[in-house]
Amino acid sequence: MENVNMIFCGLGGQGILFMTKIFARTALDKGLQTLGAETHGMAQRGGSVVSHLKLGTAASSLVREQTASFLLALEENEAYRNLPFLAPGGSIYVNAEEDEFPRKDVIPYIEKQGITYHAFPAQKTAMALGNPMSTNLALMGSFASLENKPFTYEELRQTIVSVSPARFRENNLKVFDAGFGGQP
């Protein structure tokens, strides 16, 4: 497998670190070299949280600008703020309504870079299922429905089963599966 860099971003309390844990654990279970780092602003007060994950050979834990294959954003403004991390031809997955992302002023940059973008109402999906704190899992499900590299739906789902506390497991899987099925 070639090296894959991923960026996860959002606001404190949205579950960025849990989402990163799922992807990192899935990579480790597949026998992939995995290195990660988190950068926090005022995370406890709803500030920016960015998590870096490198799969494959890596000399450092931080993803450099223009080198990430994937960017998963739980908050739309954080998606724009972290867009420079995406490599040309990379893909962004954002918690937003399809008809609202991206903003018109950002489209020229996205097109010039050949970035593929996918907006999915992950928060709306999680709330409809009575799990407002599971926006991260809905976005991961959406990601799994559109990507099969470096992870498949089944691999991510199995990791969610193994790392979710028993009392949350059923709800976590329900939200992940709804994101995979595209059901807000």
Characterization of this structure:
The chain has 184 residues and is α/β, with parallel strands linked by helices. The chain has one domain (4-181): Pyruvate-ferredoxin oxidoreductase, PFOR, domain III (Pyruvate-ferredoxin Oxidoreductase, domain 3), CATH 3.40.920. The protein is built from seven helices and six strands, in the order βαβββαβαβαααα. It has helices at 16-29, 76-82, 107-113, 122-128, 135-146, 153-163, 166-181, and strands spanning 4-11, 34-40, 48-55, 68-73, 86-95, 116-120. A six-stranded mixed beta sheet has the order 2-3-1-4-5-6, with helices on both faces. α2 (76-82) links the parallel β4 and β5. α4 crosses α5 and α6 (153-163) runs antiparallel to α7 (166-181). It is globular.
The assigned structural class equals alpha/beta
Q: Which fold name is given in CATH as the topology?
A: Pyruvate-ferredoxin Oxidoreductase, domain 3
Number of helices: 7
- Strand order in the largest sheet: 2-3-1-4-5-6
**SSE string, helices as H and strands as E:** EHEEEHEHEHHHH
Number of strands: 6
Distance linking N and C termini: 33 Å
* Overall geometry: globular
Mean pLDDT: 92
The structural domain count equals 1
**Roughly what fraction of the amino acids lie in strands?**
15-25%
